[in-house]
Amino acid sequence: MFGLKHTLSYSLVLLALNFIQAQPINQHGEFTKVDDMLLTSAEIEKIKKAMSDISKRTCVTFRETFHPTEPQVTIQRKYDSCVAHVGYQNGTQILNLAVDCMASGRIKHELLHALGFVHMHCDPRRDNYVKILEENIIEGQEYNFEKYPATEITDLGLEYDYGSIMHYSTTEFTKNGLPTMIPLQPGVRIGQLDGLSPKDFQKIARVYCQKKNNNNNAI
Questions:
Q1: How far does the signal peptide extend, from start to end residue (predicted)?
Q2: How many CB atoms lie under 10 A from the CB of residue 159?
């Protein structure tokens, strides 16, 4: 979904103004990042592979920068968590990858946060697709299941995506091993981290690639 308030969107997208205008993350048309020295060489290669997987099927590109004043995403390991600022922050923003965050799908999930995408189950329509079981959620983590107001986001013309890499699993933030969320459609899988879904790729294209394609006279 696409933000209507300078930084908001949904499963999409908490985006700054230049994102809303379908611009890349900086004036060079590239998404920039720096690597923290606490990441091993093998882990950095894994991050680069995740970036490459996204770039191969979208117009988003990634490049390394060592200029501290350039808008950039700093990929680091300073906290025991997988977390990223959502969308363009008009300066340096953080993407933190703990040791347990190094699966390819988890890296891609956090990269999509940095690109402006929020969790699928925060879609304001989500009650038509999943049921939240608040009694099983760890106290203090309920905010992770809050919906965005429909006035602040747009779905980019796409339907709810159970298969999105941005969708929580059934037991995310469980305090007792029981489900915190169940899909209302029988037989569907949620919370997969195998890779971006077809709709995830479509969302990236609709946010970032339309203007770039127009500038290149592409069909």
A1: 1-22
A2: 10
Q: Is 119 marked as a binding-site residue?
A: yes
Whether the CB-CB separation of 94 and 54 falls below 8 Å is answered with no
CATH code, 116: 3.40.390.10
Bridge partners for 30 per DSSP: none
* Residue 64 domain flag: yes
Query: Is residue 216 one of the residues assigned to a domain?
Result: no
Single pTM value for the model: 0.81
Token representation of residue 213: 């394609």
Per-residue pLDDT reduced to its tens digit, 23-71: 334 544 455 554 445 788 888 889 989 999 998 999 888 887 777 777 7
User: Rounded CA gap, 178 and 193, in Å?
Assistant: 20
The annotation status of 6 as a binding-site residue, yes or no, is no
C-alpha dist (Å) from residue 93 to 20, 75, 162: 18, 9, 28
Counted domains in the chain = 1
Structural domain for 38, as ranges = 1-210
Residue whose C-alpha is closest to residue 25's, from 99, 91, 79, 98: 91
Q: How many CA atoms lie within 13 A of 204 on its CB side?
A: 24
| Residue 199 belongs to some domain of the structure | yes
The answer to whether 113 is a known ligand-binding residue is: yes
Closest among 88, 85, 166, 84 to 120, alpha carbons compared: 166
